[in-house]
């Protein structure tokens, strides 16, 4: 959460996360703050 506060107007993304990581992010509701993508290209497209 501290990192999120430091990067107020920026986005945080994780690329290539496996299913357990994605489930943990969803369980903790961090998936609202940290987006996950399968590839770097997908992440770059979403941020454009």
Biggest sheet descriptor: 2 strands, parallel
**How many beta-strand elements?**
2
Assign an overall shape.
flat
Tell me roughly what share of residues is in helical segments: 40-55%
Distance between the termini: 24 Å
H/E series: HEHEH
Our estimate of the beta-strand percent is 15-25%
Side by side, the strands of the main sheet go: 1-2
Helical segment count:
3
Describe this protein's structure.
This protein is α+β, with helices and mostly antiparallel strands and 48 residues long. It is 46% helix and 17% strand. The protein contains three helices and two strands; from the N terminus they run αβαβα. Strands 1-2 form a two-stranded parallel ribbon. α2 links the parallel β1 (12-15) and β2 (34-37). The mean pLDDT is 88.
Features:
48 residues; alpha+beta; 3 helices; 2 strands; flat
Q: What's the gist of this structure?
A:
With 48 residues, this protein is of the alpha+beta class. It has helices at residues 2-6, 19-27, 40-47; strands spanning 12-15, 34-37.
